[in-house]
Amino acid sequence: MKIKQTIALGLMGCFLFSSTAMAAPTLAEPAKTTKPIEAVAAFNQENQITSELIQEKNDLVEIDITFPVFSGLSDADFQEQLNYFIKKQVTKAKDDIEMQAEAYAQDAKKNGWEVRPYQLFIDYDLKTNNEAFLSFTITYYTYTGGANGMTVVSCINIDKKANKPIHLEDLFPQGADFKTKINNEIIKQIELRSKDKEEMFFEGDVGFKSIKDSQGFYLKDNDIVIVFPKYEIAPGFMGNPEFAINLAELKDGLALTDETKIVVEGLEINTIINQENQTVMIPLRLTAEKLGYTVAWNGEERSVLLTKGEASAKLKIGDNIYIANHKIPYILEAPAVIIDNHTYVPVSFLEKVLLYRL
Fold first, then answer.
1. Are residues 248 and 268 in the same domain?
2. Per-residue pLDDT tens for 92-145?
3. Mean pLDDT computed over 319-324
4. Does pLDDT of 49 surpass 70?
5. 99 three-state secondary structure
6. Residue 34 maps to a domain
7. Directed axis angle between helix 76-111 and helix 5-12, to 10°?
8. What are 226-233's contacts with CB under 8 Å, separation 24+?
């Protein structure tokens, strides 16, 4: 059966990879004991979840796998594809480690190395299962010698009504700059958690910068939980750092709607309302160019520079501090945001920063 591209892309994009240390194991002839697949039923109000087990232990490998099988979804075809995808991934992990163990076994036999079995442990954790969403993680741990193994956390999120995978952007208004708000919240949590001597995060150039388009996450209660790979933003002892953020607050802060129009030099310009603080927002480029400014975007800094003769103004996406003429800071009521690939700023930017009165 061929899995649909939407499933493959939607789920594969959620994998998070950590660092791994590998060393050559040693060889002994395998004394194989294999436990066949078993099924254990686990029921809940929304649909049935069956856990399938695969266990194997011999001189070369130790494998213990538990993965979910879902039933009761409204689209039987989608359900079949989802179950197929999950089983395909875990069995591929099993086949891969067995192949790797056998390859090292051949080298070990030639060199007289002592055998240390490879390990593969897989388990899942159901996070949300209600009428709207199905959200769960599958954790893969692989040990192939050396000091540390490799941990992979797969985050899988399903819209049960639409029967499709959920991407991070699907949870927010179209075009909303949700990344900036999530980034700011993660930075706040890192600063707070860093005060605890038992927690530590990388700083400076190697510290947290931004979530990715394919960022791993899961849904739990009223929160969206952002998951990072081991070693990406923190030392190894921190494992896979997670950050819970209230989803309703994120959505409210990004809910932008058409409101009214303003007139700038005879041009009618549509505005929107930032529902987080009821601020009227205007499209920056359209407005500034009408006033004769040259608008330059800096993608690396996520900043915009306006220039007209000796006058200038600079702003950064997600920041409510606006700089006039390279030196005068103005703190406005809302940060600059990107909506549908257009930068929006508070309407007060016109009068306070550009000194233009409506």
1. no
2. 999 999 999 999 999 989 999 888 899 999 999 999 999 889 999 999 999 998
3. 94
4. yes
5. helix
6. yes
7. 60
8. 226/182, 226/186, 227/16, 227/137, 227/153, 227/155, 228/16, 229/16, 229/17, 229/18, 229/153, 230/18, 230/19, 230/151, 231/18, 231/19, 232/16, 232/18, 233/190, 233/201, 233/202, 233/207, 233/208
Q: What residues make up the domain containing 310?
A: 256-352
Per-residue model confidence as pLDDT tens digits over 254-278 = 554 445 688 999 999 988 887 666 7
Say what the pTM is.
0.62
Q: Which two tokens stand for residue 348?
A: 């007060």
* Half-sphere exposure at residue 132, Cβ-oriented, CA atoms within 13 angstroms: 6
Residue 290 phi/psi, 5° resolution? -65, -30
Distance CA 25, CA 58 (A): 14
Q: Find the CATH number of the domain harbouring 225.
A: 3.90.640.20
Euclidean distance between the first and the last CA atom of the chain, given in angstroms as a whole number: 63
Residue pair 34/56 in contact (Cβ under 8 Å)? The answer is yes
Same domain, 157 and 209: no
Cα-Cα-Cα-Cα torsion 103, 107, 113, 119, nearest 10 degrees, comes to: -10
